[in-house]
């Protein structure tokens, strides 16, 4: 065999060997044109019918459609290596090996024929149901109503979502004369969809197409898909900050002070001249950077739509910066105090349900917050609430144990803290549930100080004797019962966050819905 032949057989063998370790799903994304920096992925198909045949293989036909994605949201490039695009643009994904950020070429739109990184959660395969502008699978009934009623939607605006009460089924939510109506989309055994049995459709797209042309028994003819409220958070700030946790302090500019807590100030800032962020600056000496970084690694893994995302840190010099997503309306406590008069009971319960949802995720991850309170929940647009400062309390508590113990009254948020945490330093997810009960009180009183007539000292004295706050004025009995459940003396008798979440979410389902024809609910 001459040298070239040996080389080519070796290369084919090597490619087959590598192919054994490739997940089938990676295949499509990694079949690429080959001009970007090497990632260790194999370019080109390598399977052969005869394992002894070592001749170089002809390329397989490229599965074009599978590599093509539709943008679900607008995205503005944040670095020179990523791509800007608008909703509806088509992108060819060339490499998915970087996890949450894919390398792609824009085929249409403002970046047509340019290549760069894109956030993977901003796109869906072309022609797939996920790429349909009316498909909002993870949207709850209540959120659907909120989104459809928000400004910008006209009569007939609609969306299709997963049905909450029956797993695996879909619902159609439609805006009609300022109200949202919901229909079940049922499926026959042959997979066809229908709203009314008299007319069935092979695909959802056909169903939507039909009712967009005629109302045919629906309350109104389907109009434009519901406007998407907010693009989701990207995972990390950009493709190279996902694993690179520490970022250059110079890439952050502080713009405006948003507030101050006991450990430092918080600013609105801009990263890389492109991306709005919140920057928490920690007073020098507040904590050991190594301890903080260790905790931050855990916090970074915690990702949930109802938890503030930690983007990056600057710990090389003091003050330490903690960079997180920016929430336009600041803390829930300030928001409740400012906007109280405009909030309806359904808004209050919905905000509580969102906090419970974020906490249910922490519960599932065996993580404890330790400082749950309205001041540590942040509010974005449309009353979106996210739990903040999870993990920090743990670092502060550990590092400043003496401070906490010595100056109990001053440092420990006594009125939010469960008795076993105050008396035996026993912090568990159940002590978080106690704090959640207090947070519910804050929500239902539009940000009143808990136990308004008592000092911290009196609270510590009275709680073990069975004293509990009474039902706030105007607070539904069911909500007060939930608070009381959270304040059970024996922590095992307190509900889980999972239960709290569904109880709060179900509050509306019972409240608003009633069947008024065969399939509308
Ligand atoms: P503590 O230090 O006792 O926990 P705190 O939670 O009020 O008190 P910080 O977390 O430092 O203190 O926040 C201070 C204020 O800064 C908040 O009340 C809020 O108004 C604002 N803030 C904090 N984080 C953000 C953010 N990600 N987006 C917008 N505003 C924020």
Automatic annotation (TrEMBL):
Residues 64-128 form the SH3 domain. It comes from Channa striata (Snakehead murrel). The keyword Repeat does not apply. Keywords: ATP-binding, Cytoplasm, Kinase, Lipoprotein, Myristate, Nucleotide-binding, Phosphoprotein, SH2 domain, SH3 domain, Transferase, Tyrosine-protein kinase. Pfam families: PK_Tyr_Ser-Thr, SH2, SH3_1. The lineage of its organism: Eukaryota, Metazoa, Chordata, Craniata, Vertebrata. It is found in: Cytoplasm. It comes from the Eukaryota. ATP binds at residue 280. One of its GO terms (molecular function) is ATP binding. Its main location: cytoplasm. Belongs to the protein kinase superfamily. Tyr protein kinase family. This is Tyrosine-protein kinase. The keyword Phosphoprotein applies.
């Amino acid at each position: 065999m001459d040298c070239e032949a040996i080389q080519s057989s070796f290369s084919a063998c090597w490619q087959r060997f590598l192919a054994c370790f490739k997940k089938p799903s990676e295949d499509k994304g990694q079949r690429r044109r080959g001009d970007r920096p090497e990632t260790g992925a194999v370019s080109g198909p390598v399977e052969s019918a005869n394992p002894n045949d070592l001749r170089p293989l002809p390329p397989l036909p490229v599965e074009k459609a599978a590599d093509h994605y539709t943008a679900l949201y607008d995205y503005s490039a944040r670095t020179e290596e990523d791509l800007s695009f608008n909703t509806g643009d088509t992108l060819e994904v060339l490499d998915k090996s970087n996890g949450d950020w894919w390398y792609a070429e824009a085929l249409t739109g403002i970046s047509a024929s340019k290549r760069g990184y894109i956030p993977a959660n901003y796109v869906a395969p072309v022609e797939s149901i996920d790429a349909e502008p009316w498909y909002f699978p993870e949207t709850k009934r209540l959120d659907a109503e909120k989104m459809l009623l928000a400004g910008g939607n006209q009569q007939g605006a609609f969306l299709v979502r997963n049905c909450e009460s029956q797993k695996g089924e879909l619902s159609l939510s439609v805006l009609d004369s300022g109200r949202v109506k919901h229909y079940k989309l049922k499926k026959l055994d042959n997979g066809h969809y229908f709203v009314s049995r008299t007319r069935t459709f092979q695909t959802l797209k056909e169903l939507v197409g039909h009712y967009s042309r005629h109302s045919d028994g629906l309350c109104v003819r389907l109009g434009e898909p519901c406007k998407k409220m907010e693009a989701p958070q990207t995972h990390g700030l950009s493709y190279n900050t996902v694993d690179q946790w520490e970022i250059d302090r110079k890439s952050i500019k502080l713009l405006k002070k948003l507030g101050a807590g006991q450990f430092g100030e918080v600013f609105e800032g801009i990263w890389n001249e492109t991306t709005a962020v919140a920057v928490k600056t920690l007073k020098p000496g507040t904590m050991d950077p190594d301890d903080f970084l260790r905790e931050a690694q855990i916090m970074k893994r915690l990702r949930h739509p109802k938890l503030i995302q930690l983007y990056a840190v600057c710990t090389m010099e003091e003050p330490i910066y903690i960079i997180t997503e920016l929430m336009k309306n600041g803390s829930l406590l300030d928001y409740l105090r400012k906007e109280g008069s405009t909030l309806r009971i359904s808004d209050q319960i919905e905000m509580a349900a969102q906090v419970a949802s974020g906490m249910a995720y922490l519960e599932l991850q065996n993580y404890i917050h330790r400082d749950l309170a309205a001041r540590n929940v942040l509010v974005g647009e449309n009353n979106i609430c996210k739990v903040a400062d999870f993990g920090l309390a743990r670092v502060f508590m550990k590092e400043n144990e003496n401070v906490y113990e010595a100056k109990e009254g001053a440092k420990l948020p006594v009125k939010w803290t469960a008795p076993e945490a105050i008396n035996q330093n026993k912090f568990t997810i159940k002590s978080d549930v106690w704090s959640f009960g207090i947070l519910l009180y804050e929500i239902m009183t539009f940000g009143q100080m808990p136990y308004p007539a008592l000092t911290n000292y009196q609270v510590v004295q009275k709680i073990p004797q069975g004293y509990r706050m009474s039902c706030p004025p105007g607070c539904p009995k069911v909500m007060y019962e939930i608070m009381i459940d959270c304040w059970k003396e024996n922590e095992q008798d307190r509900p889980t966050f999972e239960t709290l979440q569904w109880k709060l979410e179900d509050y509306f389902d019972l409240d608003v819905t009633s069947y008024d024809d065969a399939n509308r609910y």
